[in-house]
Amino acid sequence: MLLNTLLCGLLTLPLTVGANTAARQDVQAFIERIADTHKFERGELQRVFEQVEIRPEIIDAMNRPYEAKPWHQYRPLFVTQARMDEGAEFLRQHHSVLQRAESKYGVPAEIITAILGVETRYGRYRGKYRVADALATLGFDYPRRSTFFLKELEAFLLLSREERFDPLAVTGSYAGAMGKPQFISSSYRHYAVDFDGDGIRDLLDNSADAIGSVANYLARHGWQRNQPVAVPVLPGAGAPTENGRLKKPDTAIQQWRQRGYTPEHSVSEQWEADLIVLQSKTGPEYWLGLRNFYAITRYNHSELYAMAVYQLSQGIKRQLQAQANIDQ
Known about the structure:
Blueprint: H1 4-7, H2 25-38, H3 42-49, H4 56-62, H5 71-78, H6 81-93, H7 95-105, H8 109-120, E1 129-130, H9 131-141, H10 146-163, E2 171-172, H11 185-191, H12 207-220, E3 230-235, E4 251-252, H13 253-258, E5 261-263, E6 272-280, E7 283-290, H14 291-297, H15 303-327
Antiparallel strand pairs: 1-2, 3-5, 3-7, 4-6, 6-7
Helix pairs in contact: 2-3, 5-15, 6-8, 6-15, 7-12, 8-12, 8-15, 9-10, 10-11, 14-15
GO biological process, one term: peptidoglycan catabolic process
Signal peptide: 1-19
Organism: Candidatus Tenderia electrophaga
């Protein structure tokens, strides 16, 4: 039926060490539910899960994410001269597509480029785990977030059917993100766009679709055209020195100024922001993250991630400007 084309070649493959996955009671219950809800053939799903592997090292990776590091250790992983140079080259190579995405969605070319740089080094490093293995491992054997990852596994099966993927051939991160922009399955289904008009939403190998999809994702999550991302601030005596849980900005910069925080750059006093405190080697750094900063955190719910994207984007922009000056 609907997955036959994708799976016809899989029946002759030898079973992996994860062959017992399909025999698990919880996996069988999942297969039954997905088959009933979405009209998959049970036999097709059974054959997929007979070859899915539960990978304990994926759980180990989930328990030590990069985002648990302090800023002074996290930043050097992503905001590097090499990544700036590569980002500037990527932007030059895809300038027309990036400009079209910026015009349509309002997201600057350097921000789109920086996200691709942080996620996959501009498409080169997309993860080594099969997405089916990652999602099954976390869905069935990671109780803390099993509900989320079982939903993503369901979305991945639907995505594979819709986009005609081989569900056992797609690789990605240990969390099941895939392609040049590292979209999780539900995000791929809801926010991926066919940006080159070839009739296919291909985030695995198509840079134009990846560029358009990143811009669409940020726009759909509140990106504000022609507004800044973040501004460094100086705390005055008596100013609060700790930020709370990451939240949508709801306090005007004028109010932050009244609380003792002075922006180092000129920004509208009416724009809303949230306080960001980052731990550098020499002490805390204070920033106000605006609506666009928050939009980036919808891609990855981490202040460190959003700041790395922002600072990398600024480095890419400086590289382009420096090159332009040399060429003049």
